[in-house]
Amino acid sequence: MKTNALLIFTRNPEIGKVKTRLAETIGDQNALTVYNDLLNHTKNVTEHADCDKFVFYDSHVSKNDLWPESIYQKKLQIEGDLGQRMQTAFDSLFEMGYERCIIVGSDLFDLTKSIIENAFKQLNTYDVAIGPAEDGGYYLLGLKKKNDTVFLNKKWGTDSVYEATIKDLEHFKIAILPTLNDIDTFEDLERSGYNCKNIKINTNAEISSKEV
Questions:
Q1: Which residues constitute the domain of residue 45?
Q2: With 60 as the cut, is the pLDDT of residue 110 above it?
Q3: Has this prediction a pTM greater than 0.70?
Q4: Assigned domain for 210 exists
Q5: Pairing mode, if any, of strands 138-143 and 4-10?
Q6: HSE (side-chain half, CA atoms, 13 Å) at 31
Q7: How far apart are CA 208 and CA 70, in angstroms?
């Protein structure tokens, strides 16, 4: 019987296409380095989690990358806004027979294996598990059945997403997880404890070639 599935949403790590808000301050090369570090952290905290694991790429499925195919099943996100992409990913795994599905991004140095496992545990009792992010979004969403409402009519990437989602879930039993800091800006990166001392701040909006 299929029970727990973890969905990891990720961008293909290509220079100029990841962490663009962060790159405005530290340059594209540094932003790519930080993103690769985030991907490695996400892999390290998920690879031993007790669940089936799926990586959803944004542009193409990569072979022989940091996500070993012996551990992670690889899929491609559909076209559309973030809500449409998440909804379709959830639906596909529920259709495969999974009973509890949790999605996380790849933007958090604060994410831990215990947070993910606790979220699955909460879904034994609650209808939904959600992890709020400091910027007003969320870093984790866990469902036990299809719920299209939570993916509709959201201003993705803004500080209204978490509150709007909670409003949609007012008739459900919700487990709220610890609030974490996801990495979108240089200020987020500094708060994360990441070693920023060798990062060259890009005051003139020029691309820096100095690596982290």
A1: 4-191
A2: yes
A3: yes
A4: no
A5: unpaired
A6: 27
A7: 37
